[in-house]
UniProtKB/TrEMBL annotation:
One of its GO terms (biological process) is sterol biosynthetic process. The keyword DNA-binding does not apply. It is found in: Membrane. Belongs to the squalene monooxygenase family. It comes from Vigna radiata var. radiata. The lineage of its organism: Eukaryota, Viridiplantae, Streptophyta, Embryophyta, Tracheophyta. Keywords: FAD, Flavoprotein, Membrane, Monooxygenase, Oxidoreductase, Transmembrane, Transmembrane helix. This is Squalene monooxygenase. The chain crosses the membrane at residues 7-24. Its main location: membrane. It catalyses: squalene + reduced [NADPH--hemoprotein reductase] + O2 = (S)-2,3-epoxysqualene + oxidized [NADPH--hemoprotein reductase] + H2O + H(+).
Length: 464
């Protein structure tokens, strides 16, 4: 009995240590023609001639809102604001189906936000898979950590899928609204007049240079945004890279669960993205040189360093995926939200705020932000007073913090705890975290509820 008490007391101590670690780290640091509306929603064109003789056409401001980018955030926002009766003009660089190795896991809290936005059908008909929790692996031991979803409808769970299929479904749904126009084009700059953003300059897919105006421009052009510097102070950190593969013809040891291997030097992830495919993401931390894909170093690294750490049930399919050669990598980016107060413009999605994708919280944060913005804009019928609107929307940055800060901080802290380290204290913390979560029940319910976004969902839902 004494030993059990000491173990539980030790677990509570570990929990406190992890919480302090979290708080410390928090304080210290696209060609789909069918989607494009051909009409201009009644807008007219004004042609001007620049000094160099080039003709430039300006679309008269018949839109209420311009959205730059039609990824997860932009597409969801376009449908949401269009459904509210706003005239929305979306300009996306490439409307063909995206092919990415992230943005494939939507946490249950994010799915609840999707329901709030009436977009839950967008995970239908794309072979999306339900996810009910995680399996955690370390040094040959493993434990299953399930989401606490008893209070929700049976359909509520995590959802995993091909990112591009999900985005196309949301684009299609947004384009069904007559007051939403999706256009393929590249935004080259924001249009500023006397310190107020009045719209954007962009090039169409045919190279035509146009200017579109609206009282509010929302920039959602993703992690590689070329516009964010005008609207925020970007402090982008790259803590690691993900190397992505797709495994076929195998089953996960724990069905409908994500799998996290606390590997060396850093985590290895597995989760389903269709009924026949499993995504594998191998994390390579910033301190380690990313092996070259072109000269075969990456394949050798995956076979000699990573493969021995893969669960036996997945080993053969992992090697087959490496041999197949469709290996891709991308930088993992982290960027705190540091916006400038800019009349006429707003940042959203990964252009605005990023966290390490280990915990799959990015889409949950973006969808939560969209629900919040929709509710803030709802009572405003006229968006033309740019300065007053800017002052009003400053509350957005405060109201988003309960959800966004919790998920962002948890992602950064867990990544650091889950990485291998030669430091004895870090090793003990990593082992203690695994042991504590392995206790299950009340010991794992809280952390998993935070990870899933469900606990944060309650906070933001009842606050609103």
């Amino acid at each position: 009995m004494g030993m059990d008490f000491e173990f539980i007391l030790g677990g509570i101590t570990v929990s406190t240590m992890v919480l302090l670690f979290v708080l410390f780290n928090s304080a210290s640091k696209k060609e789909a023609t069918g989607l494009v509306h051909a009409e201009n929603n009644g807008s007219s064109m004004i042609t001007t001639t620049a000094e160099n003789g080039n003709q430039h056409q300006e679309i008269s401001p018949t839109s209420d809102i311009i959205i730059v980018g039609a990824g997860v955030a932009g597409s969801a926002l376009a449908y949401t604001l269009g459904k509210e009766g706003r005239r929305v003009h979306v300009i996306e660089r490439d409307l063909s189906e995206p092919d990415r190795i992230v943005g494939e896991l939507l946490q249950p809290g994010g799915y609840l936000k999707l329901i709030e936005l009436d977009l839950q059908d967008c995970v239908g008909e794309i072979d999306a898979q339900q996810v009910f929790g995680y399996a955690l692996y370390k040094d040959g031991k493993n434990t299953k950590l399930s989401y606490s979803l008893e209070k929700f409808d049976s359909d509520v769970s995590g959802k995993s899928f091909h990112n591009g299929r999900f985005i196309q479904r949301m684009r299609e749904k947004a384009s069904t609204l007559p007051n939403v126009k999706l256009e393929q084009g590249t935004v080259t700059s924001l249009l500023e007049e006397n310190g107020i953003i009045r719209g954007v300059n962009y090039k169409t897919r045919n190279g035509q240079e146009l200017t579109a105006k609206a009282p509010l421009t929302i920039v959602c052009d993703g992690c590689f945004s070329n516009l964010r510097r005008s609207l925020c102070n970007p402090k982008v950190d790259v803590p690691s890279h993900f190397v992505g593969l797709v495994l076929e013809n195998c089953n996960l040891p724990y069905e409908n669960h994500g799998h996290v291997i606390l590997g060396d030097p850093s985590p290895i992830l597995f989760y389903p993205i269709s009924s026949t495919e499993i995504r594998c993401l191998v994390d390579v931390p910033a301190g380690k040189k990313l092996p070259s894909l072109g000269n075969g170093d990456m394949a050798r690294y995956l076979k000699t360093v990573v493969a021995p750490q893969v669960p036996p049930e997945l080993h053969a399919s992992f090697i087959a995926a490496v041999d197949k050669g469709n290996i891709r990598s991308m930088p993992n980016r982290s960027m705190p939200a540091s916006p400038y107060s800019t009349p006429g413009a707003l940042l959203m999605g990964d252009a605005f705020n990023m966290r390490h994708p280990l915990t799959g919280g990015g889409m949950t944060v973006a969808l939560s932000d969209i629900v919040l913005l929709r509710n803030l804009l709802r009572p405003l019928h006229d968006l033309h007073d740019a300065n007053a609107l800017c002052k009003y929307l400053e509350s957005f940055y405060t109201l988003r913090k309960p959800m966004a800060s919790t998920i962002n901080t948890l992602a950064g802290a867990l990544y650091k705890v889950f990485c291998a380290s030669p430091d004895p204290a870090s090793k003990e913390l990593r082992q203690a975290c695994f042991d504590y979560l392995s206790l299950g029940g009340v010991f794992s319910d809280g952390p998993i509820s935070l990870l899933s976004g469900c606990l944060c969902y309650h906070f933001s839902h009842y606050q609103g």
